[in-house]
Write a structure and sequence with these properties.
Blueprint lengths: L1 E9 L4 E10 L4 E5 L6 H8 L7 E5 L6 E4 L11 H6 L3 H19 L6 H19 L5 H11 L16 H14 L4 E5 L7 H13 L3 E5 L3 H7 L2 E6 L2 E5 L3 H36 L6 H13 L28 E10 L2 E11 L4 E6 L5 H9 L5 E6 L5 E4 L13 H6 L10 H7 L16 H13 L5 E5 L7 H13 L3 E5 L3 H4 L5 E6 L2 E6 L2 H18 L7 H56 L2 H4 L2 H32 L1
Helix pairs in contact: 3-4, 5-6, 9-10, 18-20
Length: 647
């Protein structure tokens, strides 16, 4: 379908890539991979005809249509969601207008036997059949199915696009692109603004409905589920593998090992040749052999070894104070904007050291609850932040909050304190800002570079509670792996708001699902949660079986539901008891903290000459010490009771 021949792109002296040739066939599902800056987005722009190469050709047949979704685009705000999505069918509307015009002309004319009248009938018939084949009568249903698959509700269809965030407007553009059904889809980070359910819908759409696909994505699970071919851009060249990404990683490792062996052999050959030349350079009897070896040396083409990004993030969160047992306790928390209730009756407890995920469709309240925890917005109900909790917060818009006029170094220099300022260059180097890169202005940085810079700012302060809102957007796969390892080793508490299944897998042990105004707790990892959701859907289908089904399965289903209900009620009572005990422990910790503070104040007063002579201070000190001992004893008793209840 598309033929790329001898492509070369230069920015300055060094080519971004050269001698690139490959063919995109029908039904190819290609993952375009390579480290940040390798030229993946540039390659997509060239395929889309939006950028010209320095040399080489991209051949596209006239009847082949191409759809391109860039990472960033200028969006229109003048229509409703439905009106904007209908723009995908402009060609159908034009054809429909032509058919109506021809129909009217046929009705008005009376020269039924003329040749031109017969030609008009033929054209009308042909265009009408084409209109029906293009889905001219059911495009509305197709629009609704696509918009709902990407997370929109029916009530959103008539809302102006200006009411939606940039991420949701990107979904509208993606919907328009999919509805046009181009022969080749070029997608640059399509999952950045999608939730898990929408990503799964898009995966299925691309597998079943799409023609050829070329995509750039750092979502490993997504590209493994969609693609069947991997093209890597490395060292200015491409390597084409007819396998999904995970298999490519194995083959790439084998290829690099072969390159290393060949490189070592070549270096040994060069060294032996140079030693021969040096040894016999001035011997007349060896002059011919020496000249031969010199020519041989000049003809050697150095073997290149694939770039191995050894400068990837090596994150190590600094040690911090130990927090209380329960960093976050929510009791009946509610957040509403006017009549719109985002969530209500949120009751949950996050224990010290737990790593949990917030998941759900965009707009269901994940980031809103995070903002409530951070104290950034008001809410109803009770939300308690535990004893000694020090929060490190990485928000979705953190990278956009950077001062664009500062350099990378100055950005960190302004927030670093104490001895850490002596290590700024080392830290920047670990985040791939080594050498001259640290002197770049923030405004010229890519999205991935800005995210890494914002992450550095987070790491400068010791914290015991991390809240990460979409931390992997714009990070490459290697960077995500290192970040994931660092969070896994972090001994504090973590909340991760993310749609990246691969990143959450093996990292979190509890999932909070946001949807329909409520927050549900699911024990287990992200794939346990996804599996459970599928089973729940199957159960719902089973319960809504037709009346003609046999009575035995109905009885079994009823028994199963009854048992589930009993199990659910028992679990509900246990959760209620646990929440009560957790609240008692939190109250005890707060009381202990207050008593310790008052005792410390008294001891400061008693250390002064005036205080040493005031016997009433000693009496109050003794009384507070007794209260403290009693509070500690109560805390130990309740804590033990809580541990027993959990077993």
């Amino acid at each position: 379908m598309i033929s790329v021949d001898n492509l070369k792109v230069e920015f300055g002296v060094t080519p971004l890539f050269e001698d690139v040739s490959y063919v995109i066939n029908k039904r190819d599902r290609i993952a375009l991979v390579g480290k940040n800056g390798a030229g993946k987005s540039t390659m997509l722009k060239i395929l889309a005809g939006m950028q010209a190469p320095t040399s080489g050709t991209v051949s596209v047949p006239k009847d082949v249509t191409i759809g391109y979704l860039p990472q960033v685009m200028v969006l229109s705000d003048t229509r409703t969601v439905m009106e904007e999505a209908e723009m995908a069918f402009e060609h159908i509307f034009e054809l429909q207008a032509d058919i109506e015009r021809m129909n009217q002309e046929l009705a008005d004319r009376t020269d039924y036997d003329s040749e031109s009248y017969q030609k008009l009938i033929d054209k009308f018939t042909h265009d009408n059949e084409r209109f029906l084949m293009m889905g001219g009568t059911n495009y509305q249903a197709e629009i609704e199915r696509t918009l709902m698959g990407l997370g929109f509700d029916r009530k959103d269809f008539n809302r102006p696009t200006s009411e939606f965030s940039g991420g949701w407007r990107m979904r509208i553009e993606l919907a328009k692109l999919l509805l046009r059904c181009p022969d080749v889809l070029l997608l640059d980070e399509p999952t950045n603004h999608l939730d898990i359910e929408s990503i799964q819908w898009l995966e299925n759409f691309l597998r079943v409905n799409a023609g050829a696909v070329v995509l750039v994505s750092h979502d490993r699970a997504f590209i493994n589920n969609v693609t069947n071919r991997t093209i890597e851009i490395s060292c200015g060249h491409i390597y084409d593998y007819k396998v999904p990404y995970d298999e490519f990683v194995v083959l790439r490792k084998e290829r690099r090992e072969q390159q290393l062996r060949a490189y070592e052999n070549q270096q040994k050959q060069i060294q032996d040749t140079e030693e021969f030349i040096e040894r016999f350079r001035y011997k007349a009897t060896k002059a011919v052999q020496v000249q031969s070896r010199i020519k041989q040396l000049e003809k050697i083409v150095p073997i290149e070894i694939d770039e191995e990004d050894n400068s990837a993030l090596r994150l190590k969160f600094p040690p911090a104070m130990r927090s209380g047992n329960y960093p976050v306790i929510c009791e009946g928390v509610k957040k509403a904007y006017g009549d719109h209730v985002v969530f209500h009756d949120v009751t949950l407890t996050i224990n010290r050291g737990e790593k949990v995920a917030f998941v759900g469709k965009n707009g269901e309240g994940k980031s809103t609850l995070v903002k409530c925890i951070m104290g950034e917005i008001p809410y109803e109900g009770k939300l308690t932040i535990g004893h000694n909790v020090q929060i490190g917060y990485f928000a979705q818009n953190q990278a956009q909050l950077l001062d664009e006029n500062l350099t990378v170094f100055d950005t960190i220099d302004y927030v670093a304190k104490g001895d850490i300022r002596l290590k700024i260059r080392d830290i920047l180097g670990a985040f791939m800002f080594g050498g001259e890169a640290s002197d770049k202005k923030v405004k010229v940085l890519s999205g991935g570079e800005r995210s890494r810079l914002a992450m550095i700012k987070l790491l400068l302060e010791p914290v015991n509670f991390l809240i990460l809102d979409e931390p992997t957007n714009h990070l490459d796969m290697r960077s995500k792996d290192v970040l994931k390892d660092a969070i896994r080793e972090f001994d504090g508490t973590v909340i991760v708001v993310s749609h990246d299944r691969e990143f959450l897998d093996g990292l979190v042990t509890k999932v909070y699902e946001f949807g329909g105004g409520v927050v549900k707790e699911h024990l287990g990892g992200i794939y346990d949660f996804l599996q459970k959701k599928k089973i729940e859907n199957l159960n719902e289908l089973q319960l809504s079986a037709s009346p003609s089904a046999s009575s035995a399965p109905k009885k079994e289903a009823a028994t199963e539901v009854s048992e589930n209900k009993l199990s659910y009620e028992a679990q509900k009572e246990l959760n209620k008891k646990l929440r009560k005990l957790e609240k008692q422990v939190a109250d005890c910790e707060q009381k202990i903290e207050q008593l310790e503070a008052r005792i410390a104040e008294l001891e400061e007063q008693m250390a002064t000459p005036e205080g040493a002579a005031d016997m009433s201070l000693y009496e109050r000190h003794q009384q507070l010490k007794k209260e403290l001992d009693s509070a500690v004893e109560e805390w130990e008793t309740v804590s033990m009771e809580l541990e027993e209840a959990k077993e």
